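Weekly structure sync, notes
Attendees: PL (lead), two postdocs, one rotation student
Agenda item 3: pending single-chain targets
PL asked that the sequence for the first pending target be pasted directly into the notes so everyone works from the same version. It is reproduced below exactly as submitted, 440 residues in total.
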Amino acid sequence: MQQQANQKQFHPPTRRAFLGGLAGGAAALSLFPRLDSAGSGRELLRVASRLTAADTVNESFWRLVKEQFTIKQNLILLNAANLCPSPHMVRSAVFRLTEDLDSDVSFQNRAKFDALREEARRKLAALLGASEDEIAIVRNTSEANNFIVAGLNLKAGDEVVVFDQNHPTNNVAWDVRAARIGFTVKRVSLQTPPASVEEILNSFRAAITAKTKVLALTDLSNTTGVKLPTGELCRWARERGIYTHVDGAQTFGSLSLNLHEMGCDSYAASAHKWFMGPKEAGLLYVRQERIAEIWPGVVGVGWGDKVQTTARGARKFETLGQRDDAAVSAMGTTVDFHNLIGAARIEARIRELAAALKEGIVKIPGARLRTSARPELSAGVCVVGFDGVDQRKVYEALHARHGIAGAPTGGVRLCPHIYNPMEEVERTISALGQVVKEMK
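Predicted structure, written out during the meeting:
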């Protein structure tokens, strides 16, 4: 399963042009040499600045990427669906800004964080194909989901259709509000794995009625790894005047996204998963024309004089009290890291690793993939079960005996990321086969 593509001859942009487009000229020149303290950060910058979007890279490039993370030796992290490490440049940004803040908490010194937050918002919007006024920097996906659940105007007799594999904050949260308001929540189930995109579309279409006001989806399931045809579902719902909310916890940072093209009305995500960003930071995107109709979940300092003001756009969802200003600001630094490698290249690598993992797993006797091998129905989340074996014991044995950290979610969940060389995928397949064989 060694990567087949050879590195192409580079036709590089100049270093100045690359950095100027990436992070704004002089600021980038001072930021990126500090990717780490050992020199590998400078080497990654040198290599990445020579890449064009069309260039393929070999394993040596991805080993260089792994050097940007502080990961224990002999530990294989395959739990990106839950929590990811941050690269040196992000951790360094959080540390430097925290140190700066702790050295001077005056209003005068803290004023800089307003500009840093807006710079982070601008970068996030550009990464996601949205406008700055449509992006709120919140604390995580759970908070963003609940802003939508609590903020939409719904009444008794309305229907909300949800995917039964949604996270509880985009599933059970609707039940809790329905109990107060009196609307109906309908769940859509799929076979595992689904056979086709059309099967998924038909399942959701069949659940929609004239009473449906909201369609709440998970872009990519953390329990089965199924990737929904979210764009098609959003367009179909929008034609019928149905509000669409998307939980993107498993696609933000792992897939190339354009939210305007996706067509959703709102999208929630966390920084600490595939985005590899700071902890307790996330985002809520709300399409411009929908912002006014959603009531804020928290109202505090900075809200304004009008209850339903739209002058600040999605910023109205950010009156959350004292924040970790360093973490909020480092959202922009994390975008810089993604841009350094390239969002399309990150997605391609994640898909390559996941495909190799699934290809090897299916050869293990008794293995039952719960995630489709088809790229249109899956991405980086891989879930497998084994006949006649306690799945949780497999998960525990992988960590205890082989230093492989996955999750016991939906079976044995393994989620590779750009800090995993292909050799770690191969080691994981071998270890998984050994563990299962020993347990039978």
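Discussion points:
- Residues 389 and 439 are 7 Å apart (CA to CA).
- Residues 112-336 form a domain with the Aspartate Aminotransferase; domain 2 fold (CATH 3.40.640.10).
Action: rotation student to compare against the earlier draft before next sync.
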